[in-house]
Design brief:
Structural class: alpha/beta
CATH architecture of the largest domain: 3-Layer(aba) Sandwich
Helix content: 25-40%
CATH class of the largest domain: Alpha Beta
CATH superfamily of the largest domain: Vaccinia Virus protein VP39
Number of domains: 2
CATH topology of the largest domain: Rossmann fold
Number of helices: 11
Order of helices and strands: HEHEHEHEEHEHHEEEHHHH
Length: 282
């Protein structure tokens, strides 16, 4: 049986299997095990948890999860070129790693997990936002996961933690913060990846609240936030005019100046507007 300390360096694994990052999948390999250990340590206790890892690639983060005591790691990997190196890790940690060759957006991941669950990923840039939205926009709340620890482009991370009256504040800020506590854990230099991307990254952590900080009808909230920020330079009375025939009256009832731009509104104000619109449909 192979022992974990006999595993090759990640760079050697990449060379031996001739692994190639694919532009079409926005792949950038993490090589630094000190960095992956830092990511895992930021997750808190994991020894009693199933850990869902999305897009493990050659397995640097996977190794750190297992080294640091994860009860079990369920790795969802779309690209079959990584299956052999991931199986090497599986042999070094018998019964601790389950590898699923699939697109995380196309499967019911909950069927593979036993609670409590934490989720971690060095997300591909091209689908990272959509994967996040799938987790934070579920109707059922609290969700099945205890935390999300995810890597994003620094620009996306800034949007996720942004507050009103900032250029980075928008739809993603509101949807992320409405039902979760969101924090940027640390920044990651572009040089940590292979190939080196043109942008820096950041690790962002999401901890779900038991209930939203402000009650709102979810579908209405998501619709008005989307409509508002699709035309963020316009006044709300203009960007939301298709939402209700008398939108100026509705905005005034919500104590919102109809001439405001969307980035001026807090999450609480958007929730209040959503509740009034739900009660007074068009």
């Amino acid at each position: 049986m192979q022992k974990k300390n006999e595993l090759d360096k990640i760079s050697e694994v990449i060379s031996r299997y001739n692994l190639k990052p694919k532009k079409s999948l926005s792949q950038n390999f993490l090589l630094d095990l000190n960095l992956t250990e830092r990511i895992v340590n930021s997750m808190g206790q994991i020894n009693n948890h199933d850990i869902l890892e999305i897009g493990p690639g050659p397995g640097a983060l996977t190794r750190s999860l297992l080294d640091l005591g994860a009860r079990k790691v369920i790795a969802i990997e779309k690209d079959s070129q990584f299956l052999d190196p991931l199986n090497e890790i599986s042999k070094a940690y018998p019964g601790k790693l389950k590898i699923i060759n699939a697109d995380v957006l196309s499967i019911d991941i909950e069927t593979f997990l036993n609670p409590p669950v934490k989720i971690v990923s060095n997300l591909p840039y091209n689908v990272g936002t959509q994967i996040l939205l799938n987790f934070i926009s579920k109707k059922e709340w609290p969700p099945f996961w205890e935390s999300l620890t995810l890597m994003f482009q620094k620009e996306v991370a800034d949007r996720l933690i942004s507050e009103p009256k900032n250029k980075s504040y928008g739809r993603l800020s509101i949807l992320a913060q409405w039902r979760s506590n969101v924090k940027m854990v640390f920044k990651v230099n572009a040089s940590s990846f292979l190939p080196v991307p043109k942008v820096h990254s950041a690790v962002v952590q999401f901890t779900p609240s038991f209930k939203p900080q402000f009650f709102a009808h979810q579908e209405t909230l998501e619709r008005i936030v989307k409509d508002s920020f699709n035309q963020r330079r316009k006044m709300l009375r203009q960007s939301l005019k298709k939402t209700h025939f008398n939108i100026e009256k509705i905005l005034t009832k919500a104590e919102i100046d109809p001439s405001c731009r969307p980035e001026e509104l807090s999450i609480k104000q958007f929730c209040k507007l959503a509740n009034i619109l739900t009660a007074e449909p068009n």
